[in-house]
Amino acid sequence: MSTSPAPAVVFDLDGTLVDSEPNYYEAGRRLLAAHGVDGFDWEEHTAFIGIGTRETLEVLRARYAIDASLEELLAAKNRLYLELARQSTEVFPEMRRFTGLLAAAGVPMAVASGSSRAAIDAILAGTGLDAHIRVTVSAEEVARGKPEPDVFLEAARRLGAAPADCVVVEDAPPGAAAARAAGMRCIAVPYVAQTADDPAFLASGLRFPGGQAEFTAQAAWDWLMGGAGR
Question: What are 10's strand-pairing partners?
Fold first, then answer.
């Protein structure tokens, strides 16, 4: 077993640490309905999992020829999402255990997410995850969202860690691709079962094809502390 320090761990938030996708879907559905777009379903939503809110709305605005500005749409969706998130956001139990193991060992942690700064702060505070994770990066704060590496590189900078000394935990192929582009190893926990064999996930250092149902804090911890995360 390696005796070198464990890498820093950078978590995606939505669909990785917390099951927020149902809230994002409902916020998007309500937003589109308010602009006369009906029939936005879960299947259409899943195509945007792992992609930042701004990039998602850019596509939907063009697809449905919505007159409102991108900034107006962003503000409205964030408002709708925060209302839902504050009512109920569930932390995946094994992810909570994993963050606890990392915190107890003094492993540096960060969240790097496509969500807004307000959403990240509200969810971490509301779930108590902010007790362990104090370094956060929103895609709002960098030039490019996932699958570009910007959020992960900024997380590494704020942690004071080299990208090669960071491991990303991700649920979506764009995030896994962003981790690879950043020069970071990746633990893949697919949120959408059909993406489990996506090339971005197949290149991950550790993969749980069954998603959260298969992921265990102990397995991830053993891999990380066994040196495979280096």
Answer: 110, 168
Q: How far apart are CA 151 and CA 134, in angstroms?
A: 15
- Cβ-contact 200, 177 below 8 angstroms: yes
pTM: 0.85
Tens-digit pLDDT profile for residues 70-96: 999 999 999 999 999 888 899 999 999
Contact predicate 228/4, CB 8 Å:
no
| Residue given tokens 């409102």 in the structure block | 68
Structure-token pair, residue 118: 């307000």
| Cα–Cα distance measured from residue 16 to residue 60, given in angstroms and rounded to the nearest whole number | 24
User: Would you name the residues annotated as active-site residues?
Assistant: 12, 14
- From residue 2, give the alpha-carbon distance in Å to each of 67, 108, 189, 213, 224: 57, 18, 24, 29, 10
Distance of alpha carbon 179 from alpha carbon 159, whole angstroms: 16
Count helices and strands (H / E) in the chain.
10, 6
Distance in angstroms (rounded) separating the CA atoms of residues 152 and 183 = 9
